[in-house]
# Entry
Amino acid sequence: MDKVYTCQIVISSAEAKVEWTGNADKNGAFVWTYNGQAKAPSVKVVNSVDGSEITSYTAEYAAVSADGTVGAYSSVKPVNAGRYSVKISYADGNFTLLDAVKEYEIEKLGVTLTWTGGEKQNGVIRWQYDGAAHDITPQVKGLEIWTASGIIG
# Structure
C-alpha cells in the first residue's frame, strides 16, 4: 500500500525598508518653501534579503487637511503650499514595505510688499493735488517672478 504524505509550506513576505531623504530637519520633518516647483521627499526602497535597491515602486501624493484627513492619492507631485502625504506601493507580494507613508509640508513663500512714491503719512501715500499724474511703484521682496508699476492721476 502506497502512502501519501502532504505538507503545507507557508512563505511569508520579506520586509523592504523605505528610506526617506530630502531636507528633513533635526526632528525628521520634511518642509520646503514654495517656489513654483513640485516638492516631495525622495525615496529609496531596499530589499531586506540581499540589500539591493527596489526601483519598481509607485509613489502617490495626497493633500492632508488641517484636521489630518488625507485626501485622494494621485501620481501628481504637489507644487502649491500645504500639507501632503506621499505613499509608496510595490506590486510584488514577496515584500512588505516598512514606513511606506510620509507626511511633509510646502510652506507659503514669505513676500514683503512696500510702495514708493509720494509722501507717506501713517502708512498712506499722499500727494497734494497739483493736476499732474504721479507714479506709485510696488517693491516686492521674496518673489522674483512679479513686477508692476502704476500711475495715479
DSSP finds no helices and 13 strands in the chain. The chain has a mean pLDDT of 86. The radius of gyration is 28 Å. The longest strand covers residues 14-21.
